[in-house]
Design the sequence.
């Protein structure tokens, strides 16, 4: 129970990649962490993955406080194309990033790192840069150009850890990616 007392937010929308939610959730819970599903939908809504796996929403994003969590996970699938457009979702991820909490994203989830910004309230132009700018990241190959255009350095590897950002490519990389999340939480 190395993660007892740790709280992890998994942000969700319909058509998430089923395994990218289920596997890390199970492993984090096995390690003692509490996992909450944060969504644009009201609590109790059954959000289904691409392959039909149902997950209940625990908290609406407007009620989710990043200070209550030790890490955030951005799964892939088709869901990131929706949740990356929401200001509250982006602010939640930015808050975690700015507090040096682990921000984990896999597959298409790193799109959120292109959309979320390094500042919550404007500020100088540098602070409005994408979270991924200047970071080494990996993701599903189809969003490589998006990440590079946002200023990231794309690395084709199963897992890339740069500062507090943990990225991975596809479900085949779930084991090492989840282990990297667990390790990051142990020392947070």
Sequence:
């Amino acid at each position: 129970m190395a993660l007892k007392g740790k709280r992890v937010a998994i942000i969700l929308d319909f058509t998430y990649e089923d395994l990218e939610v289920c596997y890390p959730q199970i492993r984090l819970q096995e390690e003692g962490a509490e996992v909450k599903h944060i969504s644009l939908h009201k609590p109790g809504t059954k959000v289904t993955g691409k392959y039909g796996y149902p997950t209940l929403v625990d908290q609406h994003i407007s009620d989710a406080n990043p200070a209550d969590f030790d890490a955030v996970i951005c799964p892939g699938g088709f869901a990131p194309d929706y949740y990356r457009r929401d200001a509250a979702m982006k602010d939640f991820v930015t808050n975690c990033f700015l507090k040096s909490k682990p921000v984990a994203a896999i597959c298409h989830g790193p799109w959120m790192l292109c959309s979320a910004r390094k500042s919550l309230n404007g500020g100088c132009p540098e602070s409005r840069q994408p979270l991924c700018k200047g970071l080494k990241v990996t993701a599903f190959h189809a969003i490589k150009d998006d990440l590079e255009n946002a200023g990231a350095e794309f690395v084709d590897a199963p897992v890339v850890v740069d500062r507090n950002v943990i990225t991975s490519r596809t479900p085949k990389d779930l084991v090492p990616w989840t282990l990297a999340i667990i390790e990051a939480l142990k020392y947070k």
Observations:
- The chain has one domain: 7-186.
- Residues 174 and 187 are 20 Å apart (CA to CA).
